[in-house]
């Protein structure tokens, strides 16, 4: 599954313009003769997606499109802007039209994650990019309205900034549903991948389960520490992060690349003394290991990495799983 390549801790959900102006029958699009039924139908699906992201610790960012009654920038245009093709200017600042729909407003409970935009794109002259940088975001799940204007513009902007982009298609509504197939084809070809909300929710559930996330570091026992340092540091170019001694007196050379070297290999033991993975749900993982009869060497216990669990694999190797957790 494509989503499996993403790291939930580096992912954010972007909810675009789920406002009365674009989703409510009495909003600007509705009174202008646009069928807002697709947008209204998407509201409960968006709500479920938002709730799932929040439960998984994935940040949810909300855009609010806001316009001024008098806009000098648009006024100088010689050709009519899209706002002139509606019964009125949509989402005027301070109006009901500009508010998030009632069903979703309670979910936007962190004001720092709600931002204003004045044009189609969520990146154009907004603080979104700074927010994503501070959150450490690398991938964006995108939903909202409308498909062929604000959503597509934002997908393009995100892709051009090298974000991994996922368009959650059943959470995106178009003013003309017949335009959607071509839009989806373009998005999937050029800007990212398409996914249904059920796929995203299942991915989040699996990703938040207690598990190993990636290799953290490993410790090799070597017969000649000087020769090993000459090979890994001198030849391969690894860099030394620290030199210290274990509690049993053996020396340790730890590298910035995650490899540790020590000597004094126990008689009959293999070269791999210690293997460590970054993980999640350490306490739950310990319970799972105990239920399956896996030997727990020690832990969960506080460590330099937060919380660590030490297990024995089928070959007798010690495997550590650690996470930035306190319990």
TrEMBL record:
This is Isochorismatase-type protein. Residues 214-324 form the VOC domain. PANTHER family: ISOCHORISMATASE-LIKE DOMAIN-CONTAINING PROTEIN (PTHR43540:SF6), PEROXYUREIDOACRYLATE/UREIDOACRYLATE AMIDOHYDROLASE-RELATED (PTHR43540). Pfam families: Glyoxalase (PF00903), Isochorismatase (PF00857). Signal peptide: none annotated. CDD domains: cysteine_hydrolases, VOC. Keywords: Hydrolase. It comes from the Bacteria. GO terms for molecular function: hydrolase activity. Gene3D superfamilies: 2,3-Dihydroxybiphenyl 1,2-Dioxygenase, domain 1, Isochorismatase-like.
């Amino acid at each position: 599954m494509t989503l499996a390549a993403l790291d939930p801790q580096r992912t954010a959900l972007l909810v675009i313009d789920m406002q009365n102006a674009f989703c409510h029958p009495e909003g600007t699009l509705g009174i202008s003769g646009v069928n807002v039924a697709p947008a209204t139908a998407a509201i409960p699906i968006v709500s479920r997606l938002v709730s799932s992201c929040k439960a998984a610790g994935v940040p949810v960012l909300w855009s609010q499109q806001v316009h001024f009654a008098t806009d000098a920038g648009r006024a100088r245009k010689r050709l009519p802007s899209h706002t002139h093709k509606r019964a009125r200017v949509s989402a005027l600042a301070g109006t009901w039209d500009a508010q998030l729909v009632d069903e979703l407003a309670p979910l936007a409970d962190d004001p720092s994650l709600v931002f204003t935009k004045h044009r189609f794109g969520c990146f154009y002259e907004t603080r979104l990019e700074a927010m994503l940088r501070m959150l450490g975001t690398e991938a964006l799940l995108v939903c909202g309205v409308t498909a062929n204007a604000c959503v597509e513009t934002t997908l393009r902007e995100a892709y051009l900034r090298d974000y991994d982009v996922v368009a959650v298609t059943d959470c995106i509504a178009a003013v003309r549903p017949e335009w959607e197939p071509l839009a989806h084809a373009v998005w999937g070809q050029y800007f990212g991948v398409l996914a249904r909300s059920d796929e995203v929710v299942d991915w989040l559930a699996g990703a938040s389960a207690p598990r190993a996330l990636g290799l953290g570091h490993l410790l090799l026992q070597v017969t000649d520490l000087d020769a090993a340092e000459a090979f890994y540091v001198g030849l391969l170019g690894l860099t030394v992060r620290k030199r210290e001694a274990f509690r049993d007196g053996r020396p340790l050379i730890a590298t910035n690349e995650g490899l540790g070297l020590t000597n004094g290999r126990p008689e009959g033991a293999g070269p791999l003394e210690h293997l460590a993975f970054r993980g999640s749900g350490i306490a739950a993982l310990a319970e799972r290991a105990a239920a399956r009869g896996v030997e727990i060497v020690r832990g969960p216990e506080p460590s330099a990495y937060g919380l660590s669990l030490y297990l024995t694999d089928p070959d007798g190797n010690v495997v550590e799983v650690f996470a930035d957790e306190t319990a």
